[in-house]
Design a protein that fits this description.
Shape: globular
Low-confidence stretches: 1-32, 183-187, 327-333, 372-384, 460-473, 638-648, 1213-1217
CATH architecture of one domain: 7 Propeller
Keywords: Membrane, Repeat, Transmembrane, Transmembrane helix
InterPro entries: Ion_trans_dom (IPR005821), TRPV (IPR024862), WD40/YVTN_repeat-like_dom_sf (IPR015943), WD40_repeat_dom_sf (IPR036322), WD40_rpt (IPR001680)
Structural class: alpha+beta
Organism: Rhizophagus clarus
Number of helices: 37
CATH class of one domain: Mainly Beta
Distance between the termini: 81 Å
CATH topology of one domain: Methylamine Dehydrogenase, Chain H
Helix content: 40-55%
Pfam family, one: Ion_trans
GO biological process, one term: calcium ion import across plasma membrane
Length: 1217
């Protein structure tokens, strides 16, 4: 070996030999013993399947070109590398990975990655930018980029780097960075399982759920929820994938997940389902799809009965078959699983004379000829649903007949074995009937085994016939298929039905019904797509139209699989049909199933998904659910107190499952950090001076600095991956100290029971969503019982902190721009503002006003009834419309007096500005009180207004002038005492003799306010003034000569001013006491968030999993939790019956004694009752001396006291130690 092919790397001698154009000359003796007879430690195929790599224990690495084979199918060796095994740890070779452009990465000392370039006849080490120790997983992707996962420590977050292998100064720079969740108790089970060449990251959380994260699209998918039976054991997880499928091996389970269809399509138990595996391998269709994944899942597992059965029954037979056709030279005696690799195109067998490449398509062809007779129905075992193949064929058959009239039939008969299957359809006035009869295939008196008739109520006018018993045009049947299991699939004009035939008991059951309206071929094409993947869940009409289907689901409510699948539809039906008993049964069953398996949250989602309907018809169930699910502890959570994490999490701080963050925006800032690191390393004094300058700059811009870095950190434009840089280090240190001011406060973690409560429908059309968006259960359910609990408050906190406060701030800023423009145009005197500037301000006000008004119009279109009931919406519309109208008038007609419009416009704009404070808790509580109190007394105010109008009418009739008059000229000889000229003040002249003249010398001219009862409108206003204490409007008449006026004044004063106004004050006081709580504020905040979600977020944003997760958790202060539990116990709201074990654990951890299960001492109770009875008798005898004691009264009193005593004892059963 030449010296130039040896390199020294960290005192380790590596030598490389590049074999160029030599494979053709290499003799078979050398190939006979691969790696000089040493065991093979690692076998790999590069991402794009260019090279097949083998690594030997002696430190040798052989590279085989996949496309370069000799005549007998063996791969030709292209290069070989030798490492010095005297200083090399063999474990390094286990994890070595290779790329298609001849790059290699190995794990070095303490998990450091070593990268090498194997091109140009040399082994050259490549430096990795930011190479951490303790790297856990790495892989090359299809673009020859290196994906590396650095696990991190307990207190640090793991980092995922994506390196470009385009060498720059003998160095790989990272181009993307991702950060996994920080280590907290809820993420204790966070584990990276696999990083694939398809830029997919697979990870597991708390031994519960496996997720897929796409590094390109940054989308997360839930792949699989691990069975409770497996979670209770020690198990390993292995994942492999290709472009279409994901293969998982979880303990004894094998799952194949379809990426396109997003559903598991194969689920096998390796201890029980060997026959099913053999069926897969015998099928050309299934084998071509699953063969590569299954072989990869069992790599390096040589002692596995499941896989040994596959090798013996499948692999060897295929090899023998190919050998007979001269595809192989010889067949080795033994096969080990690690000696086989399969890609999408080839199978590679490592034999004793070399590596053979076998064309996978030829192998599939071999399968067809070997096992064709054994395969009956490949889809009936595990793919999708056993009925999907038959349903697909049924749709195709029906499509071929349409639009011919022969496509539908009134009756169909099938013969299977010795039995005849007869189907009939009859249409009546209000319903259709489909009958099914199974009988003996005999001409004479055939025996009827069983029969069934199902009625289907239809709202389709096509089926509404005039005659009660008419069976005209009753051809409902399209076609029928009988599955392998004997189930009957029926396609009709009113839907698809599946019947199950129990031959042992001769019983027919309707096990599936999906309502459809099939009258045209276009309808059939649509529903064919609906049934293309799997059986869809029955729609709402299915439950409403078929009693047989409802009966089936009700009877199988104890079947967990059926209940979880159809529970939402059944509960919807029960609520709409007001089946109270069924609602209770479904609720109890949901709680039972969740109690038995805390990891399965589907039972809770059945209830939360239907909360809008429950809130409308049976709100008591929301209160019950809120009480029953208070403080649910995650099943994997162990009680060792958590503390406030560094991110500033606090009491009722919500979070969802782990989220991987993309930090790639911080690449520029990261390079700046690296430059400072180099400066500090090479020029220490210069670095000190530079740091001093940075500190001075921070002091100069201190307020702006924190705001700017908060925004930058929020959107990941910089990170805290290094502590050697001043700007980010100082920011994170200050923020960390501020958030950890109470870091010793113990915390608990609770599950928020409102599962899928915030999720929006996945299927939507964006243009419809912009006009009338589909709501979520959160938006439709505004119920105070939700927000009485910590779960509801935590939910609001999560939404507000995630997106709510940012959108609210933007809306507020936009409104302040609108307010500022119009206020400036209306307030600044004309002589101090330029006309062009004034015009621009008005035009800007109009534009901004229309922007705000457009959102109000969308709310009106969405739900006018709900919009009109919201008190704040009135202020919103007036605040937007009035300034717009005023601005338009001002621009067009400058001569019109618009001062009143300006005045009211500014008033409503200022009120609207004030209303923005209602989202802030410090002010929002008072706004909530104002509105809730107003809603409480609105009916009283209406009554009060009617009474005032009635009195105004009475005063108007009494005090209206009876003669005509003019305010300009006094009347002549007018004795009408209601005439304004007779009411105004008159001044008389004092004569020289001291007498007063008989005629007025000066008369004050009257106006409209002299007698306010001239007009009915001013009469009402006069009554309002009287109500406020100003009685001047009725003080111009003498009371002694007007007894009617005096009576009305007294009545008004007593009834309105004294009685009703004091009653109003009392009602206000009671309403304030009732509504003076945080619940009203939280409801108000929930309404604000609902408005933001529906009308400000884009349709795509409403489907972001980061903002609208299915499951949410929250922190709770341990001390506050103790106080809350004691409050709930005191109010008789603490229920220990449902989740007894979990709640007992919580009470124990919080050092609260649980006496709920202790029975009351019956002797003590009886003794107390006896003493009470004796005392009562004594008291009755003392008080009632003339007659004996009423025994019935005594017995009734004793019973009441007994109940009271029992309740008191029960309330005190949970006490603090």
């Amino acid at each position: 070996m030449d010296d130039e092919n040896k390199i020294d790397d960290e005192n380790n001698d590596y030598k490389i030999e590049i074999i160029k154009d030599k494979p053709n000359d290499i003799d078979n003796d050398k190939l006979h013993k691969l790696h000089n007879g040493n065991p093979i430690l690692n076998i790999q195929v590069t991402p794009n399947e260019k090279y097949f790599i083998t690594c030997g224990r002696d430190g040798s690495i052989f590279g085989w070109n996949v496309e370069n084979v000799n005549e007998d199918g063996r791969l030709r060796l292209e290069f070989e590398i030798y490492l010095n095994v005297t200083i090399l740890n063999n474990k390094i070779l286990y994890g070595s990975i290779f790329s298609d452009n001849k790059k290699a990465v190995t794990f070095g000392h303490e998990g450091l990655l070593n990268a090498y370039d194997m091109n140009n006849n040399s082994l050259q080490k490549i430096e990795l930018d930011l190479n951490y120790s303790d790297s856990n997983e790495c892989s090359f992707n299809l673009n020859d980029e290196l994906i590396s996962y650095y696990k991190g420590s307990r207190d640090n977050k793991g980092i995922i780097f994506v390196y470009s292998t385009q060498t720059n100064d003998n160095k790989w720079d990272y181009k993307r960075i991702y950060r996994v969740p920080e280590y907290t108790k809820v993420y204790e089970g966070f584990k990276i399982i696999s990083v694939t060449k398809y830029n997919k990251l697979y990870y597991m959380i708390s031994k519960e759920t496996i997720y897929e994260f796409d590094l390109i699209t940054e989308k997360t998918k839930k792949i699989w929820v691990i069975d409770e039976e497996i979670r209770s054991t020690t198990f390993n997880v292995k994942i492999v994938s290709n472009e279409n499928l994901v293969g998982l091996k979880i303990g004894i389970k094998i799952i194949i997940y379809s990426i396109k269809e997003e559903i598991p399509i194969v689920s096998l138990d390796i201890k029980k389902n060997v026959d099913q595996l053999r069926t897969i391998m015998k099928s050309a269709n299934l084998c071509s799809r699953f063969f590569p994944l299954l072989f990869s899942l069992f790599s390096y597992e040589t002692n596995n009965n499941f896989w040994n059965s596959l090798v013996e029954n499948f692999w060897i037979k295929c090899i023998d078959h190919l050998k007979q056709n001269d595809k192989l030279v010889r067949l080795p005696i033994e096969y080990f699983l690690m000696d086989i690799r399969v890609t999408n195109e080839y199978a590679f067998a490592i034999l004793d004379v070399g590596i053979w490449r076998i064309d996978l398509n030829k192998m599939i062809s071999s399968i067809n000829s070997l096992f064709n007779d054994e395969i009956e129905d490949e889809n009936s075992i595990f793919l999708h649903n056993p009925y999907m193949d038959d349903i697909s064929k049924l749709f195709q058959e029906v499509k071929s007949k349409l639009p011919s009239e022969s496509a539908t039939s009134k009756s169909i008969e099938l013969i299977r074995g010795s039995r005849k299957w007869a189907f009939t359809s009859i249409i009546y006035k209000d319903y259709e009937t489909i009958g099914l009869r199974i009988s003996e295939d005999s001409v004479f008196n055939p025996e009827v085994y069983c029969e069934r008739y199902d009625k289907f109520k239809s709202n389709d006018d096509k089926f509404q016939l005039d005659n009660d018993k008419s069976n005209l045009d009753d051809k409902l049947l399209y076609g029928i298929k009988i599955s392998k299991e004997g189930d009957i699939i029926v396609l009709t004009q009113i839907g698809l039905l599946i019947y199950h035939y129990d031959q042992n008991n001769e019983v027919l059951s309707l096990i599936y019904y999906y309502y459809m309206k099939l009258s045209e071929i276009t309808h059939l094409q649509y529903y064919e797509k609906v049934f293309s993947i799997d059986l869809p869940l029955p729609n709402a009409t299915s439950y409403e139209s078929c009693d047989g289907w409802i009966s089936y689901v009700e009877k199988n409510i104890d079947n967990k699989e059926i209940f979880l699948k159809y529970g939402i539809g059944l509960l919807t039906f029960a609520i709409k049909r007001h089946k109270v008993k069924l609602i209770g049964e479904i609720y109890d069953k949901c709680m039972e199933y969740f109690k038995n398996d805390f990891s399965n949250k589907i039972p809770l989602s059945i209830i939360t998904s239907m909360m809008p309907l429950l809130n409308q018809h049976y709100p008591e169930y929301i209160e019950k659910y809120s009480s029953d699910t208070t403080m649910i502890i995650p099943y994997y959570y162990t009680f060792s107190f958590e503390y406030y994490p560094s991110s500033g999490n606090s009491h009722l701080f919500s979070f969802k499952y782990s989220q991987i963050d993309n930090l790639s925006r911080s690449l520029l800032y990261r390079r700046y950090q690296l430059s400072l690191d180099k400066l500090k390393k090479n020029h220490k004094n210069v670095a000190i001076i530079f740091n001093f300058i940075q500190y001075l700059l921070i002091l100069l811009i201190l307020p702006i600095y924190f705001v700017t870095f908060y925004i930058l950190s929020k959107f990941h434009f910089f990170n805290n991956m290094t502590k050697n840089e001043i700007y980010s280090t100082l920011y994170f240190k200050v923020v960390g100290n501020f958030s950890n001011y109470n870091s010793n406060t113990p915390m608990l973690i609770f599950l928020n029971p409102y599962i899928k409560f915030v999720n929006y429908p996945k299927d939507y059309k964006w243009y419809k969503e912009l006009i009338k968006p589909q709501p979520s259960p959160f938006v439709e359910t505004i119920n105070e019982n939700i927000y009485k609990s910590w779960s509801g408050e935590a939910l609001i906190n999560f939404k507000w902190n995630t997106y709510g406060k940012y959108y609210y701030a933007v809306i507020w800023i936009l409104f302040m721009a609108y307010l500022g423009c119009f206020t400036a145009a209306a307030t600044i005197p004309q002589q101090y503002i330029d006309k062009d500037v004034h015009k621009r301000l008005l035009i800007t006000s109009i534009i901004l006003g229309f922007i705000h008004l457009s959102f109000e119009i969308r709310q009106i279109i969405y739900d006018f009834g709900k919009w009109i009931r919201d008190f704040w919406n009135m202020f919103d519309v007036i605040a937007y419309v009035l300034p717009i109208i005023t601005s338009i008038i001002w621009l067009r007609e400058s001569d019109i007096d618009i001062i009143p419009l300006l005045s009211f416009s500014c008033l409503f704009l200022d009120i609207k500005f004030l209303l923005f404070f209602r989202a802030l808790e410090y002010f929002g509580v008072y706004f909530a009180i104002i509105i809730s109190v107003a809603e409480t007394i609105i009916s009283f105010l209406v009554v009060l207004f009617i009474i005032i109008v009635s009195f105004a009418h009475a005063f108007y009739i009494l005090l209206i002038p009876r003669t005509q008059f003019s305010f300009a000229e006094p009347p002549i000889n007018n004795n009408d005492q209601n005439n304004p000229w007779n009411i105004v003040n008159s001044y008389y002249q004092v004569l020289e003799n001291g007498n007063i003249g008989s005629s007025p010398y000066i008369i004050q001219q009257p106006n409209e306010n002299t007698n306010m009862f001239i007009d009915f409108r001013t009469a009402i206003f006069a009554m309002y003034k009287f109500l406020t204490g100003d009685s001047s409007a009725v003080s111009n008449w003498p009371y002694t000569t007007n007894p009617s006026l005096s009576i009305l004044i007294v009545l008004f004063s007593l009834l309105i001013v004294v009685y009703l106004m004091n009653l109003l004050i009392g009602l206000l006081n009671n309403a304030i006491e009732k509504k003076n709580n945080r619940v009203s504020y939280l409801i108000q905040k929930a309404e604000i968030l609902a408005e933001i979600e529906l009308f400000y977020l884009l349709p795509l944003q409403r489907r972001w999993n980061k903002w609208f997760p299915e499951v949410i958790y929250y922190y709770a202060n341990a001390d506050k939790t103790r106080e809350k539990i004691k409050e709930l116990v005191k109010n008789d709201e603490w229920n220990n019956d449902i989740f007894s074990e979990s709640r007992k654990s919580l009470l124990k951890e919080l050092n609260i004694e649980d006496d709920t299960d202790k029975s009351i001492d019956e002797d003590t109770l009886q003794k107390s009752l006896a003493e009470m009875k004796e005392n009562l008798l004594k008291k009755f005898n003392e008080d009632v001396t003339t007659k004996s004691v009423d025994k019935n009264t005594l017995q009734k009193t004793l019973e009441e006291m007994k109940k009271s005593l029992l309740k008191e004892l029960n309330n005190e059963n949970v006490i603090d130690k």
